[in-house]
Design brief:
CATH topology: Rossmann fold
Strand order of the largest sheet: 1-3-4-2-5-6-7
Bound molecules: guanosine-5'-diphosphate, magnesium ion
Structural class: alpha/beta
Order of helices and strands: EEHEEHEHEHEH
Radius of gyration: 16 Å
Helix content: 25-40%
Number of strands: 7
CATH superfamily: P-loop containing nucleotide triphosphate hydrolases
Distance between the termini: 15 Å
Number of domains: 1
CATH architecture: 3-Layer(aba) Sandwich
Shape: globular
Number of helices: 5
């Protein structure tokens, strides 16, 4: 599979109906600044489809994209941004719960973690939530270009250990070099076939 078309559909503060809803979905989750928007742009080969930012914590909305006129890619609000207060955290939690509770067409979550760091407590919470709810997820280790090949291997082990996924099931991805893009497209294709 390749991505031959991609366009922005809408931004939602609260998840609900939108034009075309009912197609299969793939969602992108991860902490703020992990590279969700960059991954969406590189996957779709568009520079500014999803807004990226050097300042973390900006994407508080659920952004919906239509890919190949066939399925929706959902950019979920990031978590773990240090500067949000309790009220905002609670709001984030409600929005996410509302999304996962409502959406029946979600086929997989792309769970992003930074390849350079061990997963955070928030990452672990997210993964255990996905496991509990039975939502399939694909672990993607972002910013792979920041490490050498040798370093990469060394960093993937603690990530696989902590998230309890097989190291070979983690896709090392770089939005800058396109590394991991074919593997991710294969995984998305397989998820969409379910
Ligand atoms: N070197 C490198 N930087 C990246 C990569 N992906 C994202 N970034 C940078 O990380 C920052 C946050 O990226 P963004 O996509 O906005 O993260 P989001 O908050 O998860 O959507 C930006 O400065 C990006 O340029 C990558 O694969 N390699
Ligand atoms: Mg973003």
């Amino acid at each position: 599979m390749d991505i031959i078309s991609a366009r922005f559909i809408t931004s939602l503060a609260e998840y609900g109906t939108f034009p075309g809803r009912g197609l299969k979905q793939i969602a992108v989750a991860g902490k703020s600044n992990v590279g969700k928007s960059s991954l969406i742009n590189s996957l779709c080969r568009q520079k500014a489809l999803a807004k990226t930012s050097g300042t973390p914590g900006k994407t508080r909305l659920i952004n919906v994209f239509l890919l190949n006129e066939a399925f929706h890619l959902i950019d979920l609000p990031g978590y773990g941004y240090a500067k949000v207060d309790k009220r905002e955290k609670a709001q984030w939690g409600k929005r996410m719960e509302n999304y996962f509770a409502q959406e029946r067409e979600l086929r997989a979550v792309l769970q992003l973690v930074d390849i350079r760091h061990e997963p955070t407590a928030d990452d672990l919470m997210m993964v255990s939530f996905l496991r509990q709810t039975g939502i399939p997820f694909i672990t993607v280790a972002t910013k792979a270009d920041k490490l050498s090949r040798a370093q990469r291997h060394r960093h993937l082990l603690p990530i696989s250990f902590s998230l309890q996924v097989q190291p070979q099931d983690i896709i090392a991805y770089s939005s800058q070099t396109g590394e991991g893009r074919p593997a991710l497209l294969n995984a998305i294709e397989a998820a969409l076939a379910t």
